[in-house]
Amino acid sequence: MAVRPVFEVLDRSPYYAEFPVEFPWHAGFAVSQKQKSITEIHNAYHRFKPDRKLLEVSSKSTAKEGTELSAFHLLIFVPSLKKSVPVECAFQAGKVFEHGGPYRDLLESSPRTAKKDERLKNSGKIIAFEFEGERFPTIPLTFFYDWLYMTALIQNPQKADLLLDYHAFTDVEFNPGKSINCQARTDAVFVSLHHLGLLDHITAKETYYQLITGAYHSL
């Protein structure tokens, strides 16, 4: 058995809620095994909340919109390159370490190659993030990833619209004991901000920072 969070849309700060579910885990790296676990997670959640529409967002999702919205497939425009790249590549290329980075060459790698680049493991502690020469803080911990991913959603409105029919999201690859960032959580926040009419606060990192840290009080 395993326990994983389902991220639900929430109409107030922090704009998502975690609903932990226990389910039978299907071990193995095969896509078929991951998809069995996804089914188990969703079945476990629906035993508590049968009327909630739930979407798995990952490259292993059985739903087309779930795979298209994976950070491995969702694209963000990079002005200096004059083209769009996967969010995952922009995230990995944006890490600034004590002893190196940002490694901008990862912008033009495949998402899997970028994520596994040895320099990301051997350059010391992350001290900041960077995108197109602009620095981002490391606190809140998910700030940079969420900003990148939601900026990509705003740039791809047809894909973003796919999220709006759902009440909650999962990512079978996310283990809260090992990871911090999660595209399913970011999707829940995005849908919440959409419903509240606050998407215009995402584009500029300063207003988004104020919003998610509670400094924005005119809700």
What is the string of SSEs from the N terminus onward? EEHEHEEHEHHEEHHEHH
Give unreliable regions as ranges. Answer: none
Strand portion: 15-25%
How many helical stretches? 9
Terminus-to-terminus distance: 41 Å
Q: Taking Cα atoms only, what radius of gyration do you get, to the nearest Å?
A: 17 Å
Structural category? alpha+beta
Largest sheet: 4 strands, mixed
How many runs of DSSP E, i.e. beta strands?
A: 9
Quick check: average pLDDT?
Answer: 94
User: What's the overall geometry?
Assistant: globular
Helix share bin: 25-40%
As laid out across the biggest beta sheet, the strand order is 2-1-9-3
Please characterize this protein's 3D structure:
- The chain is α+β, with helices and mostly antiparallel strands and 219 residues long.
- Helices cover 36% and strands 19% of the residues.
- The protein is built from 9 helices and 9 strands.
- The strands form 3 sheets. A 4-stranded mixed beta sheet has the order 2-1-9-3.
- A hairpin with a 2-residue loop joins strand 7 (126-131) and strand 8.
- The longest helix is centred in the N-terminal third of the chain and has 18 residues, at 31-48.
